[in-house]
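Lab channel / #folding
Pinned by the channel admin:
"Please post every new chain as: sequence first, then the structure tokens as a reply. Keep commentary short and put observations after the output so the thread stays searchable."

First post following the new format, from NK:
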Amino acid sequence: MSTEAPATLAAWLRTRSDEQLSALLAARPDVARPAPSDVVALASRLAVPVSVDRALDELDAATLQVLDVVLLAPTDGVPPDELIAALPDVPDEVLTAAVGTLTTRALLWGDDVLHAPDPVRRSVRHPAGLGRRAVDLRLQLPADLPAALGELAPEERGVLERLAGDRPVGHLPDVPGNGAASPARRLLQRGLLARIDALNVELPREIGVLLRGDQPYGPPRTRPEPALTRRDPEVVDRQAAGAALESVGRIAELLSLLEDEPAGLLRSGGVGVRDQKRVAKALKVPEPDAAWLMELAFAGGLLDVGGPHRDEWLPTRAYDIWREQDLADRWAVLVTGWLDGVRLPSLVGVRDVAGKSANALSPDLVRHTAPAIRRSALAVLAELPPGAGLAPDDLTALLRWRTPRRADRLAPVPDMLAEAARLGVLVSGALSTGGRGLLASGEDGAADGVRGLLPAPVDHVLAQPDLSLIAPGPLVAELADTLSVVADVESSGGATVFRVSEASVRRALDVGWSASDLHDFFTKASRTPVPQALDYLVDDVARQHGRLRVGSIESYVRSDDHGLLSQVLSDRRTAPAELRRLAPGVLVSGLGADEVLTVLREAGYAPAGENPGGAVLTRPPARPRAAGRRTGAEPAAVPRPLTVDERASVVREMRAGDAALAARRGEAVRQVPGVTTASTLELLSRAVREGVPVWLGYVDAQGSGSQRVVQPVSLVGGFLQGYDERRAENRTFAVHRITSVALVEEDDATG
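Reply from TO:
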């Protein structure tokens, strides 16, 4: 095997061990699908700009600083020892780890001398925050550059020092009249700045290095070590459970409300301000909270566009399943949808450059980087001990160090942390057990993390003398459904307070309940004696209910109380019903029965519908549903990590491909398909006898040709039995289909 240093990236990759190639595939899984045919194909994929950018985006600031040293070196290649001299203030272990990270990802290659591939050089536009060389900017610098800098006025030197910081490109000031006398324009005239377009200038690298003095690569980019907040993990989990319970309860109230009265879909998408105000008023929450709840329900797949014309926001079919689950599973659905959602609820109400305000559920809130940002923020907190946390500013600073190339995407982090706290994923900056489970195992892990902390649903209420019903915990779905008909929510929280009123009793009677049904329900549902006032209320409302009957003519109104009918007919509030007297005790209308019922109820009457036979018509409330979509949202496009077995298989295929390439350089015996020559049989027999792998050209039954490396086992009856290295399986090859064969020498296969 040759001892010369590899001359190319592909040659260097060929010298890497199977474990090192597997580590490369683990760090950059996007290059492994489909499996590269050989190491040359792998090197080509490693040079794809999108793959290079993705790999660079995952590097921390310290690793990027080490890469900058290699990129800024005057010659191609830097010995590792020179890195230590170039960054004397960086600890040796940090340098060693950075070089290991860069070579593992093939962003640098070489052993005794480190080289940067050209695609990496092109991707890093301003290494160490320095501009291009003067020759590349077509700029002629003064011969005595230090002297030229020493002659500058303070404001001119200040411009250069700002550009020598971490961004060498700056804007020319737009100063009418005396713009030519501005410091930046004077520097242009002196040849100390280069114009790159009509508005921007760039500082040459030589000047930036000179101004930085003994730190040409900038100060050491060490990892921030912010102070941790510490709390008892049990207290964190208890408070997280409270937030989780509040979130689940609020979402249930929201969807119950939209089930009865859906929100309209704006032409531009989203929910209108009027509907948002209505929801906020009904839920007794501020308008921004109403928008947040709608966004959360949508992220969890529980709210979507539906209705006859797909113009309303309705609960989805998934809502019916969700409401039957236990509290832990319900919470897990919400937080999983939030974590993987591609929308930023915090942008609701924010105006864009045109002055337009973003509505809740609007397409304007979509940001495909949101899932990756949420996961990266929570991943930092997951590395801390249970109960330990970080302040939002400290966490943002740490994220900027960990992924500096993505720093411009981190503006939403504080809002995301606030949302996580509302959900119970975080408490005072510390990750809860449910939050850790969410990050590690998704929906199942989140549910397991809170299951023992949330109360079990209760199947009873406590009736009070003031006509209120207190639910001492979350209710089972059946009881919650019934209470939504016969009572109104007065306050929610750990214990929900329902209020029974004349309107709620009438609502129950409208959908087919009788007075005796209501008495039985309150008696069975309440653990306390039903107050007499509640019984009286039910009986009083029931006596008035149904004195008016509405049917269809299009519709009619009839009553044995002729005075009541006269009152209805003369009431201006009933004018929209278009009523007229047909006979004593009967009014008719050209409108449908449902419309007449609505008008009379809004006017304060208590009519009941009836069927053609005169019986009271019960109309159970319909449950409109949107078709919905798959629960959750697609996370940002991130390559799926490869398993150990998958990486091993890819490495085997590449090794086999390399062996095939090596065999092609040797003398191959070629033949016409269908004609077996003595040379072919002799070479195959030798391979079987000596246990030497062979490179085969082969045509299958469909006429497709392929090339592969095979470890032969036997040659009997015109068939070769062997182990196919690329497919990692035993195969049988018909000798008459072999088009070429060559021995794979060991030196060729490994060199």
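NK: The radius of gyration is 38 Å.
TO: also worth noting, DSSP finds 30 helices and 25 strands in the chain.
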